[in-house]
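Q: Give me the 3D complex with magnesium ion.
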Amino acid sequence: MISVQEARQLILDNAETMPVEAIPLAFAAGRIQGTDFLASHPHPFFDQSAMDGYALRHADLITGDPLKVVGEIRAGDPPNIDVNRGEAVRIFTGAPIPSTADTVVMQEMATRDGDQVSFDGLVDRGANVRKQGEQLAKGAVAVQSGAQLNAARVGLLATFGATETTSPRAPIVAILSTGSEFAENEDELGEGKIFESNGLMLRTALLQMGLESFHAQVEDDADEIRKRIEEASTMANVLLTTGGVSVGAYDHTRNSLEACGYEVIFHKVNQKPGKPLLFVRKQAHRVAFGLPGNPRSSLMSFYRYVYPYLRRAMGAQVLDLPRIDLPLVEEYRKRDGKTHFVTGKIEQGRVRVLRKQNSHMLASFGAADLIVEIPDGADHLPAGTVVSTWVLPR
Ligand code: AMP
Ligand code: MG
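A: Here is the predicted complex, encoded as structure tokens.
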């Protein structure tokens, strides 16, 4: 049985970034920048005032003499007033600075008397002027390939007048829940049935990372499962099956995937939960994850394995959820030599592992801030031991 690290490496070795397409910036949320975006202009575009005040020559300010106000420049106006010796121009935030001025004094320091203005106090030469190109020179990388198109980056692209950008295509994801125990309605619950929940759970996790998905469910019947996998793999880049991946008599997932031409990359990982995790591949951009049926195991495997695969397919530089290393509030004991993934809450800079973490339990996942990794090597971690954690999406 392979380790968590080996499993993750095998997954990333088999993950390729999708081809790049053009997308409107209006729909960029959740997407990744596909190529370096170079500043098409210096930014700021021109020398401009950072304040409402007066533009002047610093040499005149230090004389202390009143200056003659020779005009006004508002944001959006051209800078076509000259400021000569002994003169100042009324100016507003974002307005271009006349080429003959070098400094802006804020209006709070100014006393106006007709067309004369005097100032109490001094500012440095160049004060309150945003210099052309001080943020980005023309041609500098403004948004890197692989960067998340968050609000700030979309704003930055729009700053340059862009309405579109490039992004690796979103991988198409299909979810197939296997099991014969799914109830159609409340009445069937008394007969040992349960409600199918992995489909909506995984769909939500995918939506939170910016991906749409399709969902179907199928009974534990080898032929039916094979048909559904066949259908799904004609359209989906990534197939997520849940259930039927252990070694029970009705666990048909692995055989069905193999019958559909998928090659097993690994099956079973030395971890808890999610030991039976299966990863198979058919060709570039055609893989499947056999997730365990137990909801907690399924979601945990999603975040530690499916998530980084999808992030790479989406072209992201950062593959995992944000990681922070935190000390444990309480000791952690185990006996099985496996890597444990548990959920926890942040408590004053430390992490408290939550109770009730069995594979069928989702409540302590829903209440958690983080996923915590307890490594396979150590079976007793005293309180205060620093562990790796990954911040769950809100
Ligand atoms: P399996 O991995 O198929 O052996 O299923 C393990 C456990 O997870 C069983 O208790 C199943 O009833 C449950 N389970 C499997 N699939 C689902 C599902 N899609 N939704 C909710 N529970 C499931
Ligand atoms: Mg099952």
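A quick observation: Helices lie at 4-13, 58-61, 151-159, 198-208, 222-235, 253-259, 295-313, 363-366.
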